[in-house]
Every structure is written in C-alpha cells, then in structure tokens.
Design a protein that fits this description.
- This is DUF2185 domain-containing protein.
- It comes from Marinobacter nanhaiticus D15-8W.
- The chain is an alpha+beta fold and 92 residues long.
- It has one domain.
- It is 12% helix and 26% strand.
- The chain is built from two helices and six strands.
- Bound molecules: zinc ion.
- The site of zinc ion has 7 residues, from loops.
Length: 92
C-alpha cells in the first residue's frame, strides 16, 4: 500500500520541532497522527499539520506502518524499537 506523500498528518509540537522522537502513531477516524508519546494538553496549539512524506523521509522506520489501519495505533518504547500495534477506541 502506498501513502500519498502530500497527505496531511498531525504531529505534536515536539515532533514538529524535532525535540522528541516519534514513538506513537495513531489513526483516529483514519487520520494520521505522529506523536512523541508523552501527554499533551488537548489544545490545537500542541499540534501541527505536515505532509506525511516529510515524516517518512525523516525516519524510515515509520515506513513499516504504512499499512496501519484506521482506528489502530502503534507504539514503541525506543526510537528504533519494535512497533506494538493495538486496536483502539478513540473518543470523539
Ligand atoms: Zn509531543
């Protein structure tokens, strides 16, 4: 499966500023979110939108998750660790 590199993805400000690695990828409602895995305020100021291709270019270990299905998430304990996928219930 290919993901359009221009597709939008949500990132937290830590990922956006590259101050923390991407350790949590989730697909609420089919959107793509790439997060550091730490807690964030539920506030739009904590997130940015980027083209998903930039993220795959930056960290090619994310390519393993190209087939992540909507309403699933994948987490890892370390930047090069194995992804652990779980199906989730996202709150609306
Ligand atoms: Zn973050």
């Amino acid at each position: 499966m290919n993901v359009d590199p221009n597709r939008k993805a949500y990132v937290c400000i830590h990922v956006f500023d590259n101050t923390r690695p991407i350790n949590l990828v989730s697909r609420p409602d089919g959107d793509w979110c790439f997060l550091c895995g730490e807690e964030h305020d539920d506030d739009a100021s904590q997130y940015r939108v980027v083209g998903i291709g930039h993220l795959f270019d930056r960290d090619n270990s994310l390519l393993e998750l190209k087939d992540l299905q909507p309403d699933w998430e994948a987490e890892r304990a370390a930047p090069r660790g194995a992804w652990l996928r779980t199906r989730c219930e996202f709150d609306d």
